[in-house]
Amino acid sequence: MKPFILLATRAEDGPANEEYELFLRYTGLTESELRRVRLEAGPMPELDLDDLSGIFVGGGPFNASDPIEQKSAVQRRVEAEFNALLDQVVARDFPFLGACYGVGTVGAHQGAVIDRTYGEPVGVVEVSLTDAGISDPLLAGIPPRFDAFVGHKEAMRSLPASATLLASSASCPVQMFRVGTNIYATQFHPELDVNGITARIHAYTGYGYFAPTEVHVPLAAVRAREVLHPSRMLRTFVERYAR
């Protein structure tokens, strides 16, 4: 089997390694089958799409909507690298699944309006599939309404003409979309379980997602409802695209 690749941007080793472990667990892939590239550590290597089965993108600290003068040199480099990669991915309709930062990368590439209108605090929200989502093969076996973990400062305000809306929530209209047939992005985190998001809350205390003195609030929010279904799409992505 040709490997999949996980493009990651988390600078902290703890959250970065845990994210990789979660992707391994819920995709069912081994480390040799899911290769990781930490883009915050160095330039994106040249990727030959013919040598890959598909691409995953994890979450991260970068906000596409930040003013350019506030973006670090690393963020500007990573955004330029993603833009160049997505030129190829979109042209070939190559299998791609971006979790959370997928909205910032694919959305920005497709000309979406991304801002802080629909940011969501760390917690669990009910996500509803659209008719297109119900019939999409990546979401097979996932109920029309399901709970998912979220926590993001920015989101897509309007869907570009090239995209198909697959899922929405009351607080964030674009929770998942597809470009072409094989390119997906989610605002929620399909890779997370309650232990993973609990560790992430502790790792990112002080990053502006919640008041550091009120860490108990998101911790309670992510434990309030059981999240069962989103991770299924990671295994389905592998089953569909492994070659």
Verbal overview:
With 243 residues, the chain is an alpha/beta fold. The chain has a single domain, classed as 3-Layer(aba) Sandwich (Rossmann fold). It has helices at 13-27, 73-92, 101-109, 131-135, 194-203, 216-223, 232-241; strands spanning 4-8, 34-38, 54-57, 96-99, 113-115, 120-129, 145-152, 155-158, 163-168, 176-179, 183-186. Helix 1 runs antiparallel to helix 5 and helix 5 (194-203) packs antiparallel against helix 6. The chain contains seven helices and eleven strands. Helix content is 32%, strand content 23%. The longest helix has 20 residues, at 73-92.
CATH superfamily heading? Class I glutamine amidotransferase (GATase) domain
Succession of helices and strands? EHEEHEHEEHEEEEEHHH
Shape, please?
globular
Using only C-alpha atoms, the radius of gyration works out to 16 Å
Mean pLDDT: 95
How many H/I helical runs?
7
Q: Which stretches are low in confidence, meaning pLDDT under 50 for 5 or more residues running?
A: none
What CATH calls the topology is Rossmann fold
Structure summary, number of beta strands: 11
Protein name: Glutamine amidotransferase
GO molecular function, one term: transferase activity
Domain Glutamine amidotransferase: 46-192
Keywords: Glutamine amidotransferase, Transferase
